[in-house]
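Thread: quick sanity check before group meeting

JM: Hey all, I'm pulling together slides for Thursday and realized we never actually wrote out the predicted structure for the chain we discussed last week. Dropping the sequence here so it's in one place. If anyone has concerns about the input, flag it before I start.
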Amino acid sequence: MLRSFSGACIGRVIDLAALSSLFIAGCAVGPDFKKPAAPDVSGYTSGPLATTVSAAGVSGGEPQRFVPGGEISAEWWTLFHSEPLNELIEHSLTNNPDLKAAQAALSSAREGVLAQRGVYYPSVSAGFSASRQRESGQLAPTPNANLFLFNLFTPEVSVSYVPDVFGLNRRTVESLQAQAESVRFQMIATYNTLTANVVVTAIQQGSVQQQIEATRQLIDINTHTLEILRYQFAKGYANGLDVAAQESQLAQVEATLPPLHKQAAQLRDLMATLAGEFPSRAPAGTFELTSLRLPEDVPVSLPAELVAQRPDVRQAESDLHAASAKIGIAVANRLPNITLSAATGSTALAIDQLFTTGTGFWSVGADLTAPIFQGGTLLHQERAARAAYVQAAAQYRSTVLAACQNVADTLAALAEDAEGLKAAATAAAAAKTTLDIAQRQWQDGYVGYLALLSAEQAYQQARINLVQAQASRYADTAALFQALGGGWWHRQDLAANQHEK
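JM (edit): ok, ran it. Output follows.
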């Protein structure tokens, strides 16, 4: 008898599974999502991309050639040819807590998709109850043995299934899959931001360090000049006004040094945080701009490729997909819902009597429910879902436009960076020559002190401008790689879509 009960239960489960596959093959209400069309433009600027100018003899002064449609390396930062930078990025990718949190969020979203997929299949549960009870003597006894005090044992298997007639379950899973994709691209954006921030922070560290060194040299120059002036004043060759002016000039230069030290300390702390370390355990070593090599051949993806590479654009596309699926959910909620159920088991007064002749029971049923009046709730929920889709579509277009603007701005910045570096290098060389001549002429008595003071100030500003121009060109090159998507699609761990398991 036990075998017959089990066989009947299994047979009904198989029947429900067959029904489920039949219903799943049916239609799903609501719109089917279609990927937005790629931008119908071929470039980012009104004119063709040209090779930038060069600043000979200056670190970072090499010309850059933009390659439309070129491939972006998954490890684009290696193009700067700095082994310490490569090691620091790998350390950051392993230890950065923001990236770890984004990866955990993605795992959670994917598990949510897999959990929701369970609605595609029948739900099977088993239970066992045991009780001792006494019936009132005023009522007829429940058991056939006419007992008022008895034990009751009931093992039972229940099967239920909700056929996805109108696609409610499929649209729900589709929406969760799109949301998981959105989380995935959030994680990729975190990855891109982290790598770019490490590179830019290293460049800024090198820039500030060179500015500190230049400022110290200027302090030495001004200190030496002040010593000469004081000697001449003691001998009667210079007046007190010149000495006071030089003392003021020296103090002004010295005042620029503490802010640079402050910035250097903050950059060191930032780098430690990016690497997932406490500031007290900041990575050792410093970065030198002269140790970096400027990437000369820079790939520039076409706009049609950019929308597939930028994680923020892909995230906006996934949000649009989720909004589309939610329209189907809202429509399906207004339609009838069917529930199929079956149960089988045995009830006996003793455990050893279970599954014997006459103790078995079974039931098969179907329920149909349909919303009739909900006060307009379901109608307005559907309208809200459609409005949310329009909003997501507008946000997607805005994200695409912002991405193209980002690339265009960075390309323009690089072109101007090259011009600026060339001008800064020329100005620094001219200022150094002017200062050398002014110092010799002042010591020989051919020019006044004000001419020397003016040459010192010009040289100070020229040195700082040169270092800042070098750093801007390196940093904007890194910004371009980030603006183009960072090459994440060439990394197997980031490119893989793990929805299907």
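AS: nice. The CA atoms of residues 144 and 343 lie 23 Å apart. The first strand starts at residue 65 and ends at 68.
JM: adding both to the slides.
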